[in-house]
Design brief:
Chain B: It is found in: Cell membrane. Chain B: One of its GO terms (cellular component) is plasma membrane. Chain B: Pfam families: BPD_transp_1. Chain B: This is ABC transporter permease subunit. Chain B: Keywords: Cell membrane, Membrane, Transmembrane, Transmembrane helix, Transport. The complex is a heterodimer of chains A (283) and B (423). Helices cover 75% and strands 0% of the residues of chain A. Chain A is mainly α and 283 residues long. Chain A has a domain of 174 residues: MetI-like fold (Orthogonal Bundle), CATH 1.10.3720. The radius of gyration of chain A is 24 Å and the shape is globular. The relative contact order of chain A is 0.12. Chain B is mainly alpha-helical and 423 residues long. Chain B has 3 domains: 43 residues, no CATH class; 107 residues, no CATH class; 221 residues, MetI-like fold (Orthogonal Bundle), CATH 1.10.3720. Helix content of chain B is 68%, strand content 2%. Chain B is built from 20 helices and 2 strands. In chain B, strand 1 and strand 2 form a beta hairpin. The longest helix of chain B is centred in the N-terminal third of the chain and has 41 residues. Chain B is flat. The two termini of chain B are 60 Å apart. The relative contact order of chain B is 0.08. The chains are: A mainly alpha (283), B mainly alpha (423).
Chain lengths: 283, 423
C-alpha cells in the first residue's frame, strides 16, 4: 500500500489521514491496557497520575500495591483458588475434548452436525444464561457452592475451544500414517501415543491454553455456581471494582497482562510449529 | 478364471466367504460405532454439566408447583368454586385452607408461597405472613370463613381467591407474561401498571446498545482490518499483536482499565482539564451511564470484529481494484463499487458475532453501566441473587436464549459454524 510517486495531493492527504486514523484506533485498542501499567506503580492510592509521577520523580513510584497483592490474604486466597480450579477444569476439557475431536474427525460419523452443535453450544450461549441454568441445576443435585461444581462448569465452558483447535489440527493430519503404524503391527493405543499424539500435540496444547484462560478469566459462572470458599481472582477483582476500588487491582491487572503476553507468545510459537509440521511455511 | 465366471451371477465374496457388500457394511458400522464411542464420554459430560442445566432453566420458567404443593387441599376444593359469580368460596374451601395453612406454617412454607404470589398480586406476601402467624390460634369449632376475614379483610375479597385459583395449575405462563410486562388476571392477560413496565424497554435498550456497540466496532474495525490486510506481511504481523493482545487480556483487566480512565477524577477527564478543553466543574460524565458501557464494550469486542474482517479482506485479490482504476474509476468508486461488496461477508460475520456477544454481556455493564447502561443480563442476575424471583429470571433468560439462538442460526447460515477460527 505504498504511496506511488505520481500520487496527487488529495491522495497524499488521504494516505496520511488514513494512517493517522488507524494509529488512533490502535491507540484506543492498546492504550487502556498500557496505561494501567505505570499507574500500578503509583505511590499514592489514586487512580490517576500524580504530579510526582509526571515529573518522573522516583518518590512518586512504589511497589506497595504489589506488596499488598502478595501479602494480603484477601488476594492470596483467591489466587490459590484460581490455580486449583483452572488446571483441573483444563485437564477435564482437554481429556474429553481431544478424545471427542478424534472421534469427530473420522470419515463416517452419524449425526456429526448435531453433535458438533451440542459440543460448541457452551461457547454460543451467553454466560449469564449458562450461569443461571447451572445455578438452578447444580443446586438441585448439591453441586452448587462446591469445588467440583465450579470445576465441572468451567470444564464445560472450555470444551468448545478444545474441540475447535484440535479438529482444526486433525484436518491436516495424514491418515496414512496411522495405517502405516497399524500395518507395522502397532495396536490402536500405541499408534495413538506414538504417531498421532505427537503430531496433534500443538493443537491439543493450544486448546488447553484456551481452556485454561477461559477458566482463569471466568467470573460470571463462578459468581453463581461457587460460594465464598471458591472465590477466584477475577471474582475478587469484580467485587473490588464494584464495591471499594483499591489500587491493588491495578497491580493484579498488570500481572495478568504479563501472563497474557506469555500465553500469546506460546500460542504463536505453537502455531508456527504446527504449520511447519504440516508442511506449510510459517505465517 | 472359472470361479470368476461362476461368481459373475452371484454376489462378490470377501476373503472370509461373506458377500463383499455385507462385509463392507459391517466394517462401516464398526467404524461409526468406534467414532461414536470416542465422542460419547464428552457428549454425556456436556449433557450433564451444560444441557441439563439449560433445560432446567427452561423448565423453571413455566414451573409453578408451589401453590399445589403448599395448599393441596385448597386447590382441590377451589376447583368447584366459580369465581364469576362474585361470591366468596364456601366454608369447605376455608376449612381446607385452614388445614393446609397449619401444615405450611408449621414447616414455614407459607412465606415462600406468599412471595411467589406476590410476584403476581402485590400484598400477598404480607397477607400470608400475617395469616401464618395467627392460623394456629384459630378455633376449629367456629366457621373458618369469618375467622380468616377477621385476620385480614383481604380473605373476604374474591380477587384474593381467584388469584390463588388462577395460579394453582402446575405450569403457568405467568413468568413469561411478566417478562414482557404483562400479567395474568382472571379476566385474561393484561398490561402491567405503567410504573411497573420495565422489561420490554430493557430488552429494547439491550438491543439498541448492542446495535450501537456493533456499529462502532464496525466503524473502528473496518479501517484497521483494511490496513492490516494491505500491509506487507512483516508489518501486518507486528500490528496484529496490537489486536491480539487486548483479545487475550483478561476481561476484568480491560474493564478496570476503563473504570480508571473514565472516572470523574480519571485520566481522561484530568487530561482534558489540564490542557484546558474542559473547565474543572464541567467534567464529562463518562462512567455509570450508557456512554461508559458503549465505550468499554466497543473496546472489548473490537477484536471480534477485526479478525473476521481481516480474514475476508486477505482473500480479496488486489488486481480487481487495480483493474477498476485502469478502466477509469476514481479511488472512491473503485473502493465502493469493487472492493466494498467483496468485504460484505466479513462484515456480516463480524457484526453478528459482536452482536451475539454484546447482547448477553453482564460484567462490563454491571461495572461501568450505572443504571442507564445495564442490560437484560443484569436484571437476570438481580432476580437470581437479590430478589430471588427465579422463575422470572428463568423466563427472561429463556427469552434471551431464544434471541441468541436465532442470531446464531443466522451466523451459521452466513458463515458456517465449522469456519469459526481462534487466534
Amino acid at each position: 500500500m505504498a504511496l506511488p510517486s505520481y500520487a496527487s495531493t488529495g491522495q497524499r492527504i488521504w494516505y496520511y489521514g488514513f494512517r493517522t486514523i488507524c494509529a488512533l484506533i490502535f491507540l484506543f485498542l492498546i492504550g487502556p491496557i498500557l496505561i494501567i501499567i505505570p499507574l500500578s506503580f503509583n505511590a499514592q492510592d489514586f487512580f490517576t497520575f500524580t504530579p510526582e509521577m509526571l515529573r518522573l520523580d522516583p518518590a512518586g513510584y512504589s511497589l506497595k500495591h504489589y506488596e499488598d497483592f502478595f501479602t494480603n490474604p484477601d488476594w492470596q486466597r483467591p489466587l490459590r483458588n484460581s490455580f486449583m480450579i483452572a488446571p483441573m477444569a483444563t485437564l477435564l476439557s482437554v481429556g474429553f475434548g481431544t478424545l471427542a475431536a478424534i472421534g469427530l474427525s473420522q470419515s463416517h460419523v452419524p449425526f456429526r452436525g448435531a453433535i458438533m452443535a451440542i459440543l460448541i453450544s457452551p461457547m454460543i450461549v451467553p454466560l449469564i444464561i449458562s450461569a443461571a441454568g447451572m445455578f438452578f441445576f447444580y443446586s438441585r443435585i448439591g453441586l452448587q457452592g462446591t469445588y467440583w461444581g465450579v470445576v465441572l462448569a468451567h470444564a464445560a465452558l472450555g470444551i468448545p475451544f478444545v474441540i475447535i483447535t484440535v479438529t482444526a489440527t486433525l484436518v491436516g493430519f495424514d491418515k496414512s500414517l496411522t495405517r502405516a503404524a497399524a500395518n507395522l503391527g502397532a495396536g490402536p493405543v500405541r499408534t495413538f501415543f506414538k504417531v498421532q499424539m505427537p503430531l496433534i500435540l500443538p493443537g491439543v496444547i493450544s486448546g488447553g491454553l484456551f481452556a485454561f484462560i477461559t477458566s482463569f478469566d471466568e467470573v460470571v459462572v463462578v459468581l453463581f455456581v461457587g460460594s465464598a470458599g471458591q472465590k477466584t481472582l477475577p471474582w475478587q477483582m469484580f467485587t473490588g471494582l464494584r464495591e471499594q476500588i483499591s489500587p491493588t487491582i491495578l497491580a493484579v491487572a498488570t500481572i495478568l497482562v504479563a501472563i497474557s503476553v506469555l500465553l500469546l507468545t506460546t500460542l504463536e510459537l505453537l502455531r508456527r510449529r504446527s504449520e511447519r509440521l504440516r508442511g506449510m511455511s510459517p505465517g | 478364471m472359472t470361479s470368476a465366471t461362476d461368481d459373475a451371477t452371484g454376489p462378490v465374496l470377501a476373503a472370509d466367504g461373506t458377500p463383499l457388500k455385507r462385509s463392507l457394511n459391517r466394517a462401516l458400522r464398526r467404524q461409526k460405532l468406534r467414532a461414536l464411542m470416542l465422542v460419547a464420554p464428552l457428549l454425556l459430560f456436556i449433557l450433564i454439566t451444560f444441557i441439563l442445566p439449560i433445560g432446567d432453566m427452561l423448565f423453571r420458567s413455566v414451573e409453578n408447583q408451589i401453590v399445589s404443593e403448599t395448599l393441596p387441599r385448597t386447590v382441590v376444593a377451589l376447583e368447584d368454586w366459580d369465581e364469576t359469580t362474585g361470591e366468596l368460596p364456601d366454608e369447605a374451601v376455608f376449612a381446607a385452607f385452614h388445614e393446609d395453612m397449619v401444615i405450611a406454617a408449621d414447616q414455614k412454607l407459607h412465606t415462600r408461597l406468599g412471595s411467589r404470589l406476590n410476584y403476581e398480586v402485590s400484598g400477598m406476601s404480607s397477607l400470608f405472613r400475617k395469616t401464618g402467624r395467627r392460623v394456629d390460634r384459630m378455633d376449629t369449632d367456629q366457621p373458618f370463613r369469618d375467622q380468616f376475614i377477621d385476620v385480614d379483610k383481604d380473605w373476604g375479597d374474591v380477587e384474593t381467591w381467584s388469584a390463588i385459583k388462577l395460579f394453582s395449575p402446575e405450569y403457568t405462563p405467568g413468568y413469561f407474561l411478566n417478562s414482557v410486562d404483562r400479567t395474568l388476571t382472571p379476566d385474561g392477560i393484561e398490561k402491567r401498571p405503567e410504573d411497573q413496565r420495565i422489561y420490554v424497554s430493557l430488552f429494547w435498550r439491550t438491543m439498541v446498545l448492542s446495535f450501537t456497540i456493533t456499529f462502532s466496532c464496525l466503524l473502528l474495525g473496518y479501517p484497521v482490518a483494511f490496513l492490516l490486510s494491505n500491509l506487507p506481511l512483516r508489518s501486518s504481523n507486528l500490528l496484529m499483536i496490537l489486536v491480539l493482545l487486548p483479545f487475550w487480556t483478561s476481561l476484568l483487566v480491560r474493564t478496570s482499565a476503563w473504570k480508571v480512565l473514565l472516572q470523574d477524577q480519571g485520566v481522561i477527564n484530568n487530561t482534558l482539564v489540564a490542557i484546558g478543553i474542559l473547565s474543572d466543574d464541567g467534567r464529562l460524565a463518562l462512567i455509570n451511564n450508557a456512554t461508559g458501557t458503549i465505550i468499554a464494550m466497543t473496546h472489548i469486542l473490537l477484536p471480534f470484529m477485526i479478525l473476521p474482517l481481516f480474514s475476508v479482506m486477505k482473500t480479496i485479490p488486489p488486481s480487481y481494484v487495480r483493474a477498476a482504476k485502469s478502466l477509469g474509476a476514481t479511488d472512491w468508486t473503485a473502493f465502493w463499487r469493487v472492493y466494498f461488496p467483496q468485504t460484505v461477508p466479513g462484515i456480516g460475520a463480524g457484526a453478528i458475532l459482536v452482536f451475539i456477544l454484546a447482547i448477553g454481556y453482564y460484567i462490563t455493564p454491571e461495572l461501568v453501566g450505572g443504571t442507564s447502561g445495564i442490560f437484560i443480563s443484569n436484571r437476570i442476575a438481580y432476580h437470581i441473587s437479590s430478589s430471588l424471583n427465579w422463575g422470572l429470571a428463568a423466563a427472561l433468560g429463556s427469552t434471551l436464549l431464544a434471541l441468541v439462538l436465532v442470531l446464531y442460526w443466522l451466523y451459521d447460515k452466513i458463515v458456517g459454524i465449522d469456519n469459526v477460527k481462534l487466534g
